[in-house]
């Protein structure tokens, strides 16, 4: 019984909608299914402006352009994240200031951000790791105090929420100036490749359309708002084919069913592994009181790199693929190639060495979860003796 780390789930409607998109005669960007997806997100989550992109990376690059990030600017981001989070801003000439993770969670430590802010700081990039919210109340207070942009990297955070101290609950992606989502095949809702930028400040909505359309006001032209379109700004070809959008819309129609199944599997892992946490053999994910769980990922934190490496090999020998995640970016070859030095970020480095992700996908069976947890238990207890 081989258990992969990920297995894309198909609802059964994807090919039907793709055929409809082809039959419509318009399979380039902003066809009928792209519009359906935009409407879905704006109505369900109250996003001001949703625009599908070809990837979350492209959405982040759009956000960097919209925010006028320029050479000499500084951007604060977690070190424990995917390279796209910061590449988008490096491409605009910005210097990345890395912030450590929280002690018990990979998210950026909001209490350590203010000490990193200088007169050159332009933006904070919170990454909602595993779909769990960063402390957005504190981050937005800092943004207001220092007049900074907040760009949420919500790649993993679809259908997840943040609760303010006042009790107000808001969807992740709706809080910052901009946000970026991913529909890569490893995410909860997929289109193979794909992403989305959310523009929550309406002042940027018009320009977002222009940047997404190669720097032209083509979208306004098709709505009849201008009698011709031309080159009016910088931009690129960020919009996806309507074929991709058709696939995505079939997934969105089944969002609740997909989420319900993933949460059941996530909780099954958690319940099975509680005894190992109580025994001090691993740590389970900590969900902040202000965050909800969208079951994007189930991970465990081992006590050492050696233990994690041994467990990965033990699971692999039993046909289970479990994988580690990010390498701290402040220690990357590229970053050090600029001659940049950085203070120690011990929490980020601990997650680099000790965090391990378990298989989690719609068709994973509960019996397989139990099998994986039994393997973990056997291995960790064997190291005790």
From TrEMBL:
InterPro entries assigned: DegT/StrS_aminotransferase, PyrdxlP-dep_Trfase, PyrdxlP-dep_Trfase_major, PyrdxlP-dep_Trfase_small, WecE-like
Domain of life (superkingdom): Bacteria
First and last residue of the signal peptide: none
Keywords assigned: Aminotransferase, Pyridoxal phosphate, Transferase
EC number of the protein: 2.6.1.59
Molecular function in Gene Ontology: dTDP-4-amino-4,6-dideoxygalactose transaminase activity
Coiled-coil zones: none
Top EC category: transferase
PANTHER family found in the cross-reference section: DTDP-4-AMINO-4,6-DIDEOXYGALACTOSE TRANSAMINASE, TRANSAMINASE
NCBIfam families associated with the record: ECA_wecE, PRK11706.1
Family: Belongs to the DegT/DnrJ/EryC1 family.
Protein name, per record: dTDP-4-amino-4,6-dideoxygalactose transaminase
Gene that produces this protein: rffA
